Amino acid sequence: MTPAPIKEMEKIARRIRGRVVELSHLTKTQHLGSSLSCVDILTACYWSVLRIDHQAPGDPCRDRFILSKGHAAPALYVALAYKSFFPEELLTTFAQDGSHFAEHPCPKGIPGVEAATGSLGHGLSLGIGMALAGRILRHTYRVFALLSDGECNEGSVWEAAMMAPAHGLDNIAVIVDYNRWQATGRSEEVLALKPLREKWAAFGWDAHEIDGHDLSALCALLHTVPDGSGKPRAIIAKTVKGKGVSFMEDDNNWHYRVPTEEEVFAAKRELGLVES
Amino acid sequence: MRNAFAAVVTELTQEDPRLVLLAGDIGNRLFNQFKDFSPNRFYNCGVAEANMIGVAAGMAMSGLRPICYTITPFITARCLEQIRVDLCYHNVPVTIVGTGSGLSYASLGATHHSCEDIAMLRVLPGMTVICPADAVEVKAAVRAALKHDGPIYIRIGKKNEPVVHAAPPDFVIGKSICLRPGNDVCLLSTGNMISVVLQAAEKLEQAGYSARVESFHTVKPLDEECLKKVFSHCRVVATIEEHSLIGGFGAAVAEWLADRPPFPAKLARFGSADRFLYETGSQNFARRQYGLDADSIAEKIKNLL
Hints:
The structure holds two protein chains of two kinds.
Chain A: H1 6-27, H2 32-37, H3 39-49, E1 64-67, H4 73-82, H5 123-136, E2 143-148, H6 155-166, E3 172-178, E4 181-182, E5 185-186, H7 187-190, H8 196-202, E6 206-211, H9 215-223, E7 233-238, H10 261-270
Helix pairs in contact in A: 1-3, 1-4, 1-10, 3-4, 3-9, 5-6
Chain B: H1 2-15, E1 19-23, H2 32-37, E2 42-44, H3 49-61, E3 65-71, H4 72-75, H5 80-89, E4 95-99, H6 117-122, E5 128-130, H7 135-146, E6 152-155, E7 177-180, E8 185-189, H8 194-206, E9 211-215, E10 218-220, H9 224-233, E11 236-244, H10 249-258, E12 266-272, H11 283-289, H12 294-304
Parallel strand pairs in B: 1-2, 1-3, 3-4, 4-6, 5-6, 8-9, 8-11, 11-12
Antiparallel strand pairs in B: 5-10, 7-9
């Protein structure tokens, strides 16, 4: 895949954000703030980094992307639709009767969705299994797992964090969407999360902290997996919950709130998707 | 049963390159031969069972056939949610092998007892539950599991359990194996209770009752043909398991029975009571505390006949 230019990716990220806000309103679904915070990460992955052919989503050689923070499913679905994994019209079935597009990714019926997530603390273990299988079966694919900072509460994350370096797995990267909120509080206050980069480094990861909305920085770190170091990579991506819509940014009410029609319009205007 | 498990995976790794063995920091020398044949197919996942199940699921999604092995309560209750989501919701071919099931590790204390695992795993959609009777059935069950396209739980004992099969039986998942004929009473034994059950049958025979014994190795799916037959032809059908009466094999049979028109046979269930054992001791001591010895079983059944 030819990586998209940064300018184009910025435009794509805005379109994804606009559609995610619309869908939340249309289907009365939550987790808007968590979806918006990881849109740039998804954009960098799908439009620049991942070697996946949307026409062959089951190719054993494909790169794997696991949305371990499954509650950001709307953002993943929109990204996959815009990448032509399935027709865009299907997005309106989100959370509707009989649809596979549940509010957390379903393991069936959605091309491009690698794993069912939604219960936190599962995705990295799955990813390590895939990365080890890649090594055993002599595939050169990479595995990327996107976690939330709240998800790092789960003990299983740290079980997994200890396993990858023990096997010198460098074909896997974890990206932590560090928006500093979890469902009901500041992630640094609920449990002692800080210092997050240093924690991953202490667990044996090649750990970096960057601006999670800086597409160039994201791409630079994601493109160089694996780097031959024998160390798995951790990217602590500092983000803003609700990013892209001023009245949602860093306001944790938008973990559960659903926008009104007027708020959707205002959001799209800010994103440059409608004439002001 | 442990040694039989190690022997069969060592055989299978030479036949099927998809097999990967994941262990939870046990079986120190048990898998040395396996590792000699397939050094890159063995992973000690440490004392981190939740991660082990997830890793196995990721491997299975990528075309491998993982088997996860550690002590029963830690590979079932400890990581039940990983089994539910990573294995069952995705419906991936991963085999979980729990060792020291039931009261096998009686002297280690109740942290290491496992009388709830059948109940917890049986309720999970798509999960198959197998409790082999002896070392021969362990080998057959693991071979069958590797050919099965979905998650399987195999519940094994420890070591040196009596072997009841002189020759490898025709082992099919979901088909019980008749070990002795009889028509007054039928004893359905699951898992490592088989030698006690055969003794109980002997005692019943001495008392003048003809006692059939089935090794009912698959708890899910139940062998309905066998159940129909024995409930139609016997006066008493008994389920015997080293597991709680709540939710286990006997409960599964009772559920099956409740959904059908009445049969002539009475159901008697033998299993552990709804309480932990706070006293340590041998496996036989622990069994006696729950009435799971041949004398108690035979006496109770005689009273029903």
